[in-house]
Design brief:
heterohexamer; A mainly alpha; B mainly alpha; C mainly alpha; D mainly alpha; E mainly alpha; F mainly alpha; D: mainly alpha; three-stranded antiparallel β-sheet; 6 helices; E: mainly alpha; two-stranded antiparallel ribbon; 4 strands; about 70% helix; elongated; binds sodium ion
Amino acid sequence: MTPAISALDHAIILPVLLPALTAAFLVLALRHHLRRERIVSLAATGLLLALAIVLFALASDGTVRAYRLGDWPAPYGITLVLDRLSATMLLLTAVLAGCVLIYAAGGVDGRGRHFHPLFQFQLMGINGAFLTGDVFNLFVFFEVMLIASYGLMLHGGGPGRLKAGFQYVAINLLASAVFLVGVGLIYAVTGTLNMADLAVKVPQVAPADAALLKTGALLLFLVFATKAALVPLHWWLPATYAGTSAPAAALFMIMTKVGAYAIIRVYGLVFGAGAGPLALAAAPFVMPAALATLVVGTIGLVGSRKLRDLSAFAVIASMGTLLIAVGLFDVEGLSAGLYYLVHSTLAGAALFLIAGIVQEQRGAASDRLIPAPAMGGETLLGGLFFLAAIALVGLPPLSGFIGKVMILQAVRTCAIWPWIWAAILGASLLMTFGFARAGSVLFWASGPVSERKPLPALPGLAAVVLLLAAIVGWALAAGPATQALSLAARQALDRNSYIEAVLLPGAPAASEK
Amino acid sequence: MNPVIEAVVAALILVGAFFLLVGALGLARLPNMMSRLHGPTKATTLGIGSLLIASIVYFTATRGSFSVHELLITLFLFLTAPVSAQMLAKAHLLRSREEQSRVTPTGRPADWATLAKGTHDAS
Amino acid sequence: MELLLAAGIGILTAVGLYLVFRAHTFPVILGLTFLSYAVNLFLFAMGRLAIDRPPVIVPDAAAYTDPLPQALVLTAIVISFGMTALIVVLALRGFLETGSDSSHLDAPRGGKGDAS
Amino acid sequence: MRARLLPHPLLTLLLILVFIFLMNEATPGVVVLGIVLGIVIPLLTAPFWPGRPMLKAPLTIASYVLIVLWDIVRSNIEVAGIILFRPADRLRTRYVTVPLDIVTPEAIAVLAGTITMTPGTVSADLSADGRALLVHCLDAGDPEGAVAAIKARYESRLKRIFE
Amino acid sequence: MTLLLVVLVPFFGALLPPLVIRSGRNTCAMATGAVTLLALALLMSHAPAVFLGEVPKAEIPWVPAIGLSFSVFADGLGFFFAAMILTIGLLVIIYARYYLSREDPMGRFFTYLLLFQGAMVGVVLSDNVIALLVFWEMTSLTSFLLIGFWRKRADARQGARMALVVTGGGGLALIAGLLLVAEAAGSYQLSEILVRGDIVRASPLYLPALLLVLLGAFTKSAQFPFHFWLPHAMAAPTPVSAYLHSATMVKAGVFLLARLWPVLAGTDVWFLIVAPVGLATMLIGAVIALFKDDLKALLAFSTVSHLGLMTMLLGFGTPMAAVAAVFHIVNHATFKAALFMSAGIVDHETGTRDIRRLGGLVWLMPVTGTLALLASASMAGVPLFNGFLSKEMMLEEAAHTAYLGLDFLFPVLATVAALFSVAYSARFAIGTFLGKARHDYPHQPHDPPVGMWLPVAVLVVPVIAIGILPGVVAGPLVALTAGAVIGGPLPEYHLALWHGITPALVMSLAAFAGAALLLLGFGRADALRLRLPRPDAKAMFETASAGLVVASRRAVAAVHDGSLPRYAGVILATLVAVGGYGFWSATHAAGTRPLLPVSLPAATAFLALLLASGMVLLRHGDRLTALILTGVVGVIVALAFLQFSAPDLALTQISVDVVTTILMLLALNLLPKTTPPEESRAVRWRDGLLAGLAGLGVAALAYGVMTRDGTSISDYYLAESKPGGGGTNVVNVILVDFRGYDTFAEIIVLGIAALAIYALLDPALKGAAVRRIKAMLPHEEAMDAHPLLLVMATRVLLPLSLVVGTYIFLRGHNEPGGGFIAGLVVAIALIMQYIASGYGWAAERMRVDAQSYIGAGVAIAGLTGVAAFLFGRPFLTSTFGYLTWPVVGKFEVASAMAFDLGVFLTVVGVMVLSLAQLSRVARRIDPAPHNPEPMDVRLEPAASRAREG
Amino acid sequence: MITIAIAIAAGAICLALGLTLYRLVVGPDATDRVLALDTLVIEAIALIVLIGIAYGTGMYFEAALLFAMVGFVTTVAFCKFLLRGNVIE
Ligand code: NA
Ligand code: NA
């Protein structure tokens, strides 16, 4: 039996337990009291943020920490792994969740049943996916995340949302089936599910079994690519994001990132550069697909009829950009990708929340890109939109620009860099065009501004302002941030420290030097 | 194992299988739904019953301790099979005008429950 | 036996996928059910096949089949029940709200919902 | 008091037996647990079984069970013959109406079940007032005889047991 | 550090105007002016050092990872430009105070203006190329806001968008270009790059870098063929036009060419591209300007022409031409800003900017008129004004330039451009200010308040001063700036009014003469022009934009058509292709594991599967039949699990299938009962083929695995299950112990499903859904909802099921069974009560509601896991032990069983809740009060008596 | 002897399964198919009991028990659907 562990070590499981128990409590005790639900939900999310900060600080020492559930040794029990990368994702999730929840507390949460429990369960699923070090457990947490997202997606929705929801669920069920096939093949060949153990065993695969293993690896990759909305597996995204409520769409910004995260984890670590005959198994597909994703997202953005459609395609385009960086599978690319990941999550969320406010404010015209009577707070909303658009297009001075420059620099090692540059910069141009068109129709081409129109609700504005402030902060803190992410990327691609931390608990802490 | 017991077990297995087969045969070849309904109920009783007795005898003999849990299967089947059969009969009766024309009258003011009109409006 | 099971998995997969391609919700749901049968069997088969070797520890057993895929499949069965229940309800509500159980999103040009 | 603690004493007995059968052993532990279950479960489920049929005439019960078992074996063979050897067009399938004298739902249920489980007859429906049973006969040359047999062999005994 | 503040002050100052606007428009303008003045003062504090040849620098690190630092340096070029930007900015602010009307939100205007100013200063002072790019794009963004300031006007919006797309787009190219330059030079600091020109020009990246940089510069400076956006940007308020489109932003491109001149210039490519682009722009701008009737448009194209002039000079690549370019930049800044402001005053006073409706204004507004006439003389290149001097230098350089062996091209076309330049200047001056005073103006024009004309006057002073005493007034500045541009020793030159009879003088005179002739024949020339095709840039841009939007929309709609089958098809095709690639691109060998012999039951079961599946394929239109067949498949799958030693799986499959079937039936009741045949035969074959291919692939993979041996971590589970987990059913111990965390999450999945179902069906009980439900007439149905036999059987079954459930639960740790299956068994028994006796009757008798089961289940499972914390163990650490009780004997107690109890409760709750919710919707069809009795058969009173007795 | 009996019985049950499948395929009515499914469950129970005897193990008993217990629920649900539309009302 291993020695008893400290209270701080338990903090690693708390990002999963805290929302789960909060949700259970909300269902059991507060399901008929919206106000109290709000308070508890906000408090729990605040606590989660504090927790994420603690974990982030914990991970900053460069140690990979393993938490062995049930006290079973790895690879037999399920292991949670906290490293810089997972801590970053947890922190991002908590920040995003806080902002989104503030928006939802403005009234969206009361339009259907069980918003807050579903929200908390969603957080549980996301955090669980970021923390797990086991591929089957990743499947289970994907399902937690997805089923909660189905609930949130449909929360208080109308007919259009239901149809989009059906497609969303159906496509994800298809993906879940493929997930099981992929995991099954990987288990069948390697005999293990633990990612660290897989990282050890995959390079040793017998030549006779390599094809089965590689097929499994690629099928699994396609599942993650589906979550990450990589073309041509992105079909579920536009209607889902455009069809759901603003806070749900904003929270879903992190869901696509879970796909990207899984790609980093599994194809950077298990099937990464050190995977012998299966080294970088997914790499040949990521880059072309990412480019296609960028192109499709951009074209969709230009052709959008509604602000929410535009936002959804902007998300697709940003996933393309992100995966271009991830697809390099090197430290520079990954650091760039991670910086951009944080940025695009916050920016996309801000845009969706703005779209939500616009929809409320414009009444019958909703968020369609057609001239309509002026809405209350037009100038303010226009300004917020302008900032969000700058962020998403990746124009200076916000963090999108920094992220894009990082990516441009990182892809110079890639043979097709001129094409990538052309795609990224050309997309930026078209996105500039699309956003300018949308913004000038929504915020400029309206009737005379009337002071009598009601201003947008305060919680919604506060949420947007917080997100935009976070983006500004992310740009200002880009120096230390990129430094930290570079360490995170290095650590994420370093098989040995991960393997040692998970499989050799007795070994001295693998500290980076 | 005692050859007598062995023979008994073998015989019971064969009897069970025979009645199962006959039940299925009835299901397959009898001309209408109500007649076909008779087939499986036979399989349920003597078919499964014989097999279960075979199992009881066999395990009691091989393990030296009395094995009776097989009886529970029979218990459940006796409890549920008539329900299945009647529900099927009722469903068929409701759906088939031809079948309705064949039923005998109740001999009372009230009609058969499946065909009665307004039974629960009256309540 | 292996070939039989593999073929069975293949058939279930093919039928399931074919149904997922139908343009109405109910066949899609049926297809997903078939698909989950197929996938559960597939995952199960990843532990290889063994006859009369249940993974229950008994004193004189010669060998056991691989218990891990069984546990995974059990989890998968339960999860897919939850998913199926949800998508069934979703299809139903979609139908009740729109009067169509087509799985198409209504295209802006006023599309091809069915009249049933 | 007894009625409150043991709403269905026979059920309690049945449950204890079922549990012991299930465990396939009769160790003290199993019996104790069986007794606990036999007491607790009927209490938990009492609301779902509002009537409290008092079974009388235990000997009649025994004879009823034996008769039914015998009838099952006998008519199974009979029906097997019909299925195997009788051409379909020579089947004398018909419905018969069995007017009921028993009124307890439990008794009616047992009668209907018995009819179905004895081959050759299926209880197809009950009249809306619960006073007649519709029975489908696979091969009934003498419908009145069949009705009379049902009433005499089964219903009369059930009336004694339940009412 | 103060140098950094020159850039930062306008940005922070931008917060000021909206804050002080409440105190009045004067205060607001003064605050803005003060900000600019402060920045200017800070800049000027470096003037002595700069003029002494020092290069002040300052830096704040920002993102070292990408080479981005906020670093500035003030060499001659940067200093000059910064000074110009801030000075003209100050004048524009004063002017704008009077120009803007009361309805215009002045606070916002000045905020935008200061943001722009800061960005512009940032561009010219940046020492870091990425920082330069940041500011560069910010000028595009802020100019977008300024051009679109009158946002309710369509032309303002269009102009703003066009400017943003063209200049912002060019900026994107510039990003690429400068990154390549920096990479080639090995530094992101301009001050270092500037001395590494040779390395850059020798680099293979030079050509792409040059082209991209030029794209950025040309778009910003409206060079041919990107000149079209500038006139439309004139929809902006005049102060904006004056500031951005004459004095500062458009010069950013020229600035960049000058800035990078030591690095990029001097090659053939540079000359071959830059010089003709400048020439063409100069010529075309001048020609168009002549025929513009709108004052601002005329001035705008004049600006285009002058920017071309500067570009051409820089393109020559010679130091002398560079000096000329710098000199012209100085001169143009002064007279053009003055002219823009004059035009604004005219517009303001007369209400029109149309030359055809103007004339003789010098008599009505003498101050403005005089100033404007002086400035336009300079624009025409009349001697004694500064415009003349730099134009002469330009002509002199052009006269000596041969292009691809054509030595007449540049001299002749430059002269023609000069001709047109004189002509439009004259037309501007004469048409507006000279001639007879007109009296058909809406209001009698007067000279404006001093605040409006004073800035013009201030600008006219250098126009004349430089024109007369160039060496004294402009000499040091030109030397300083040109020195920075050339980055080496200055050539021999002499700024003077008279150089003797030079080729330039001849060309100049020819231009004046030609211009006179042209103006005399203006009517005919105009008529000729009208007959030529006149491309309308705005219309073309708008058409192209609309086309782009429509094309994108079509492209997206064509694939994103909302069709699930298509989406699924593409996804599956991808899966098959990538999976296939994965298999064929790696090594494979057939397995050697001995196969199990086929048994007859297995073969029969396979046949059944084949038949049922095939029939589903053919008959899925009949939904009920398809459902029955699915049930058959479920039975076979359960049998397969049994056959291959997985009793737990079989038990689970059997019971889950029951619940699923009921669920589907509940839904089918309200859904259409048939699926209409829709797809064509071709579509069905295509789908079938794809599905078949995928099925084949999955089957092959399964077969591939099953025919080979492998090792797995499972040996550990088999070994540790009893000693470590305390149970002999390894599957159960994995579920509740080794991998209890999976199970914990899994019951939460179930819980969420129930919540979501609840949330989804709740609203179905109101609104359109209810109308639709009510419209569904009860179909032909039996009135016997709760048959007696069914009710009686379920009454017995419930307690029996509970016993069985307990049994399955208790022994699950050691034999097949466990919490899941027990939960399912109990749930089914409870659901049977609903089915048999009706929801109302049964629900009344349920002691605890389903939601509480779920909550309690999750809580028990979770708390069992958390309990381990107390012992310093991780979540879900289990323990077990053996207790010995009298009579009962020794039995095992495991904490994992408490966990399993949580699982059990959750499963019961979820199953019951989901089905009950679903049935609730259907019960809306028949709103009649439900039969309170558990049976529909109405027994005679005798029965009740008998029961009571 | 038992082995032979089991082999013959397995054959007979498989034949029975085949006949049941025939009814499943030809129907003609939904009630016929439900009846076939119900019969299939009975035959599955028989097979399981037979396997139990053949392998000499009680490990599969619960599966048979469960089939016997819940198999009829499916049948009842289908019939209830045919009779009333709503399975739970
Ligand atoms: Na444990
Ligand atoms: Na179990």
